[in-house]
Design goal:
Blueprint lengths: L23 H13 L5 H43 L6 H13 L4 H15 L11 H14 L2 H8 L3 H13 L2 H24 L4 H13 L1 H6 L5 H19 L4 H18 L1 H17 L7 H24 L5 H9 L11 H23 L2 H16 L2 H20 L6 H4 L5 H9 L30
Length: 460
């Protein structure tokens, strides 16, 4: 077998052909392919595909392991708060438990009696509220639905979110299912804190620190009571996760659905918090447009929040659900035991001013660590966390002050403003020292993203 000559004189000559009519160069090529096997570019492609698949599998395994750890940590800390406080219920627990039992198929009389047993049994540890014997409490609570004004009861029946979330547990476990539902929602709050921390750029260890702080702060206390605070905070945290992912352009369609569903469910759990958060996100997204990295995603957040807000107001109007005016009358007439006041808004302004100048101001003076924690958290949000994650957290915390101002009751201040501590938990965890940026954690960017691993780029 001969090779064609590279000499210029052979440039125009056709290569010699073999007996079967094939070109020598074609035969040589086939010979090399037969002796050397497949061409080399095929191997890197297969290796790269296997490597990418393996990395994805390990990433999902790490994410699943982190969620399991967060669930176990949250379960332990939730039990600590459940057993470490006083009463695990308040008088409002009766109405939520009664509705959950009714939705689960119990008769009205049975639901009233069982709800009274749940509430009276849980209120024994609160001497301030426990003025009756257990038998007297059962008698009083079980007869309360027949004596309480319908206007007062409608305030609770217009918030079906918490009872509906408890229905599966009540169907399976009976009366104890209501406490089990509260436990599940409280532990889910801790997992949501971890996911939110990862979404804004914290490392896994920092995310677990944020979860721990969540349970140690007042959020953990109220998240372990049989009240609507646990599902309310869960919905708020999920809404923040959707907002941050949407603003950062990650899984945009899924994030938009998560945000819309979380806001809608929040309005069903606690309308005051749902309306406040939807209005805050809509306003914040519009005001952040000049500084937004993507105006399209900011407008999407504003549009979703406005849509949910308008839908909630429309449904409330069509179904004649109790609104802010009715809530104010409930506050100033001692649960409708007194005649309606003619000027509820003026009384609200006066009571809110008194709440801030007397109640809150005195509380800040008596416990200076509280204002220090809020100021410290604000500084961290401004300097260590990128803007598209910082402003939703800050506004969500401010909704706690707004809700407390709309219900100016000093003895309910800590419960109504509990969401103000969520940014504090995230901000304090953000200061946990880290050794290096991780390139294996989802949603954790290392350069030009303002992640907490690289504080020099924060706030960009």
């Amino acid at each position: 077998m001969t090779q064609s000559s590279p000499h210029p004189a052979d440039a125009g000559r056709r290569p010699p052909r073999l007996d079967d009519g094939t070109d020598e160069r074609e035969e040589a090529g086939r010979h090399r392919e037969f002796t050397q096997g497949p061409s080399r570019p095929h191997w890197p492609v297969r290796f790269a595909g296997a490597s990418a698949s393996g990395l994805r599998g390990r990433r999902w395994a790490r994410a699943a392991a982190l969620i399991v750890i967060a669930g176990l940590l949250g379960s332990g800390l939730w039990m600590l708060r459940w057993s470490g406080g006083g009463s695990t219920a308040t008088p409002d627990t009766f109405w939520y438990a009664r509705d959950a039992l009714r939705y689960a198929g119990h008769s009205s009389a049975e639901a009233d009696r069982t709800a009274a047993e749940i509430t009276c049994g849980a209120m024994k540890g609160d001497p301030a509220r426990w003025r009756l014997t257990y038998t007297e409490c059962l008698r009083y609570r079980s007869r309360l639905p027949a004596r309480a004004p319908d206007r007062f009861q409608r305030i609770f029946t217009s918030r079906p979110g918490y009872p509906l979330l408890a229905v599966p547990f009540v169907r399976v476990m009976g009366a104890t299912g209501f406490a089990a539902a509260t436990a599940a929602l409280g532990v889910a709050c801790g997992v949501a804190v971890v996911l939110l921390a990862l979404a804004i750029g914290l490392r896994p260890v920092q995310a677990l620190v944020a979860e721990t702080l969540f349970y140690l702060l007042p959020t953990g206390l109220w998240g372990s009571r049989m009240l609507a605070e646990a599902p309310m905070m869960l919905c708020l945290l999920v809404a923040l996760i959707g907002t941050v992912l949407l603003l950062r352009g990650r899984t945009v369609k899924t994030a938009a659905v998560v945000l819309a569903c979380a806001l809608a469910l929040l309005c069903a759990v606690k309308p005051a918090n749902g309306v406040a958060l939807a209005a805050a996100l809509a306003a914040g997204a519009v005001l952040s447009l000049p500084f937004a990295s993507s105006r399209r995603t900011s407008l999407a957040v504003a549009g979703i929040a406005t849509f949910v807000l308008a839908g909630n107001l429309w449904i409330s109007s069509v179904l004649h659900l109790p609104g802010v005016h009715e809530t104010l009358q409930d506050t100033f007439t001692r649960h409708f035991r007194l005649p309606d006041v003619p000027d509820p808004w003026q009384r609200l302004a006066d009571a809110s001013w008194s709440l801030w100048t007397d109640g809150i101001a005195q509380l800040m003076l008596d416990e200076p660590l509280i204002p220090a924690a809020f100021l410290f958290a604000a500084a961290v949000l401004l300097t260590r966390i990128r803007r598209d994650a910082a402003w939703p957290l800050a506004l969500a915390g401010l909704t706690g002050a707004l809700v407390a101002s709309m219900h100016p009751l000093v003895y309910e201040l800590h419960r109504l403003s509990v969401v103000a501590w969520i940014p504090v938990a995230i901000a304090l965890a953000a200061l946990t020292p880290t050794s290096r940026c991780s390139d294996q954690v989802p949603h954790l960017e290392r350069t030009k993203t303002g992640s907490l691993c690289c504080p020099a780029t924060g706030g960009s």
